[in-house]
Amino acid sequence: MPNIKSAEKRVKIIEKKTAENKAIKSRISTFAKKFKVAVENRDVAVAEVAYKDVVSLLDKAACDNVIHQNNADRKKAHFAKMLDDLKKSN
What we know:
The chain is mainly α. Helix content is 86%, strand content 0%. Helix 1 (5-40) runs antiparallel to helix 2 (44-63) and helix 2 (44-63) packs antiparallel against helix 3.
C-alpha cells in the first residue's frame, strides 16, 4: 500500500484505466465472436457488417494504446482472409 498521497492517486487511476481497457478488450472479443459465428454459418451479409464493426473497434483500441498496432493489424488481416475465403466459397 502506498504511503504517499500522489502514489495513492496513481493506484486509483491505474485501477480505473485497467477496468476501461478490460471493457474495451471484452467488447472486441464479443464482436470477433459474432464475426466468427457469421463466417461459420456462411452468412456473407452478416459477416461483412460484423467485420466492419470489429475492425472499427480494433482501430480505436490501437489508437488509444489499449492494444498494440501490430496486434490490431494482425487480427484485421486474419478476419479479412476469413471473409475473403467465405466470399470465394459462395
